[in-house]
């Protein structure tokens, strides 16, 4: 027995209640209507059926069929959402058709009773099947519609008993009970489903003359109702998916007019449904061609098309595909990706990586800013050196970024997962430097830690050690360092046992080591050990074309440090920065930008020339000339002076371009830098 609930008790609901009440296979458990005086409610109460004003509590009960007759779309949608699993829902449109069918049959029956003269015409012209039997159950009449539904010959079955033609017929029961059976569902042997009403034919005196069965084929109606329900469920599911998607989606019909967009599309483009729905596909495009129209024309999908959309000119990438149903083009669907958001997130990720590296005191070659020829040479040399275990000597003026190179070399080597120890040889007192570098044994000196102490070389074992300001080492420490480089072992202070180590040494200095050797302040043998892989880092004045890129990188760093949002440098300020020689190099540039940001107003986002502190004008370039000597000087000195003069001339002729000057002189760029350092020539010589 199928449990049925009717929602809506107006005339349609009452008709359906009459149809289902007492019908075999159906049990109407409740009739619901907010109006307690509704006719269906009154009839339900009369028949002892539960009546209620709210249908929701009944959703907890087992129901097989829910009939909704209110005609309200919101009620139908809520019923579908809350209905028990397995319950079939008949929407108001189908219910209305069934109610109209019942009302039509009832009216027809009344008309037959009152208008006997017109019975035959109505009987045979009706599209519904009709069968009349006498009081004994023999067929006395049948219309053509009934014959077609039952698939019998009307002329041959008239006069036969109804059970021989339709064994499942309920007419004999009606003859016996004299009770009308409304809207009974019957399934024929051929698979057709019928709704039938059986009526006894009784005159005014109560005499039984026979019975009438009126039935209608509802096979297609039931299938259509099920299909409509399934289609609506599928549509609701697809719309829910589209509307909940974070991807911007737009759909157009076969003519290129918008039919659907989701909230993500509105957030991205700034266009609402009123701006798009029913409008041509070009309505949202600010720059570029409509991919919807292209797909509709070619019937082929398009992927990765760049364009700008909406009033905000958002830069997007579009993927569009055609919608083809049974070979027929129905429209196209597009998915829009916000490129500007991707770019913003990528920039934030890069900034986060820089912050992390700063917190860990680690840098890579990606942190080294420089597109000048001189800087490219230094970077390529450093990358090449990183792949070898050789000792590296970083040479350059203070503030050029020697420590940055040391970090990058370590991180690009196969030792990057081991320790990187940094030592500023000039910052540690000479009396402590030796014990800090090599460690000491217990009792080596007063105040020595019990058990001794490991030195920095031991801490850096299998890793790298960066010795900054190597030119400041004392003679005794130089001798010990030479032993480390030659023998790959150390001896702690106060100890006698050598300790083997595997350490990559990266040294750095801004001192002219050749001059220090000549003056006896630096060991020549240590120099040759350290100078195995020399890398000269050019000063900022020799690579001024890198200043704009350096400013962008330094401003990003200073924004993080100072909590500012400075965007860049104006053209006037950049001209002022480019005109300065920067004796303090990149460190001085960072200092100048930092001071400018400190004194900027909070709402200002561009560093202007007025924000910069006073900068000295470019110093005049000293002219190095070979002195005319009357007396004869040592040959080596004369040759050196003449060589310096030739190098200066080559640089002036090529306007300071080191690569071109080295090519003209027939020497390498690295050798040119060495000679510039050796002869004390200004590396920014310019005609």
Automatic annotation (TrEMBL):
Question: What are the residue boundaries of the PAS domain, all occurrences included?
Answer: 115-185, 230-290
Keyword rRNA-binding attributed: no
Q: Which SMART domains match?
A: AAA, PAS
Positions the record marks as coiled coil are: none
Q: Is the keyword Protein biosynthesis in the record?
A: no
Q: Spell out the CDD domains in the cross-references.
A: AAA, PAS
Q: Specify the domain of life of the species encoding this protein.
A: Bacteria
Annotated ranges, domain PAC: 178-230
For this UniProt record, give its keywords in alphabetical order, as a comma-separated list.
ATP-binding, DNA-binding, Nucleotide-binding, Transcription, Transcription regulation
Domain Sigma-54 factor interaction: start-end pairs: 368-598
Question: How is this protein named in the record?
Answer: Sigma-54-dependent Fis family transcriptional regulator
Species the sequence originates in: Bacillus caldolyticus
